[in-house]
Amino acid sequence: RGSRGYIFGPTDIGLFYDANIIEAAEHEFVHASSLAINDQLGHKNRWLWEAFAIYEADEFIHPKDLAYLRKGEFPSMAELNGEFSGESANRIYEVGFLLSEFVVETWSEEKYLELIQEAGDIEKTLAITIAEFEIKWKKFVTEKYLKKLEF
Predict the structure, then answer these.
(1) CB 129 within 8 A of CB 123
(2) Which residue has the higher pLDDT, 101 or 21?
(3) Rounded to whole angstroms, how far apart are CA atoms 14 and 7?
(4) Contact at 8 Å (CB) between 28 and 53?
(5) Own/partner pairs for 82-86, CB < 8 Å, 24+ apart?
(6) How far apart are CA 60 and CA 135, in angstroms?
(7) Cβ neighbours, 10 Å, residue 15
(8) By the 8 A CB rule, do 98 and 90 touch?
(9) Does position 118 have pLDDT exceeding 70, yes or no?
(10) Are 34 and 9 within 8 A, CB to CB?
């Protein structure tokens, strides 16, 4: 429900026809491409699987448009890795670009690709704990996008 497309493997992509089919195709193509880097990514870390597709397809959502981020209520990595159900199921689609941008700008594109190769193992790849990653990500987004805004 709510899906614009799906992927069964690196050569099997399905799309639902709608006004945004080009964007959906780009997103699903990135998923297929990520399987060339790590064919287990989609099964290991939902947050990175979606964040990579969102970032590479340039599906940016400004944090000012997300009330929970404006209130400083950032989702945890555990929440972003959760099931496709519940109140926060779609938050990865809203913040995925920001997570990827944070990794690229804080570390590098090379480290970002390494993170994909390591199936999202933050501690091994970036040498910080998940808790530290969450704190630094919140600070990055707040300083880059939210600090200058007046509500």
Answers:
(1) yes
(2) 101
(3) 6
(4) yes
(5) 82/46
(6) 21
(7) 17
(8) no
(9) yes
(10) no
CA R_g for the chain: 15
Tokens of 56: 């590479």
Specify whether the CB–CB gap between 63 and 146 falls below 8 A.
Answer: yes
Q: How far, in Å, are 9, 27, 37, 123, 144 from residue 132 at the CA level?
A: 33, 29, 26, 10, 18
How far apart are the C-alpha atoms of 15 and 150, rounded to whole Å?
40
Kindly write down the DSSP assignment for every residue of 67-117, as one continuous string.
HHHHTT-PPPHHHHTS-S-STTTTHHHHHHHHHHHHHHHHT-HHHHHHHHH
pLDDT score of 10 more than 80: no
Tokens, residue 73: 């209520």
Q: What is the pTM of this model?
A: 0.87
Instruction: Compute CA 128 distance to the chain's CA centroid, rounded to the nearest angstrom.
Output: 18
